[in-house]
Amino acid sequence: MKKIREHYGKSQEAFAKMLGMEQSHYSRYERGAVRPGPDVVIQIATKLNVTTDYLLGLSDDPIGTSSEADLSDDELALLLHYRAAPDEVKRALAILAGSRAPVAAGNNEGDVPETD
User: Fold this and answer.
1) For the chain, which residues make up each domain, given as ranges?
2) How far is CA 78 from CA 24, 52, 55, 74, 99, in A?
3) Distance of CA 103 to the CA centre of its chain
4) What is the pLDDT of residues 13-62, one digit of tens each?
5) Rounded to whole angstroms, how far apart are CA atoms 25 and 82?
6) Helix, strand or coil for residue 113?
7) Alpha helix (H) ranges present in 1-116?
8) What is the mean pLDDT of the chain?
9) What does the pLDDT look like over 48-89, one tens digit per residue?
């Protein structure tokens, strides 16, 4: 987040005000003392007109070419929760959704079990 703030040429106080939050709270995000929840990430990305992936450091492309721009706020929040979930939660969600695809994160210890 510091990189983005510096891109805007703003102090922490001015940047926090632009985002609608207290400087002390924003400072905790920037230092990594607190991780913003999905709703906050979406809010900040929307206000800055950047993708959530860029904000989270997962992409160098601030605009992005992914279909995330086509997602509703609720869908994007679910996606962010999914990405942050442990592999066992992702496997359980895949089973609930009837998917047979392997979990796409980290070092997975197996695929989603076949369900017939």
Assistant:
1) 1-56, 66-103
2) 28, 13, 17, 6, 17
3) 18
4) 998 998 889 999 999 988 989 888 888 888 888 888 788 888 888 887 77
5) 25
6) coil
7) 2-8, 12-19, 23-31, 38-48, 52-55, 73-84, 87-97
8) 78
9) 878 888 888 888 777 766 555 577 778 888 888 888 888 898
* Residue type present at position 46: T
Token pair listed for 67: 């279909």
CA atoms within 13 A on the CB side of 40: 13
CATH of domain 1-56: 1.10.260.40
Report the alpha-carbon distance of residue 116 to residue 114 in Å, rounded.
6
Q: In angstroms, rounded to a whole number, what is the distance separating the alpha carbons of residues 106 and 116?
A: 27
Q: Which two tokens stand for residue 38?
A: 């999905």
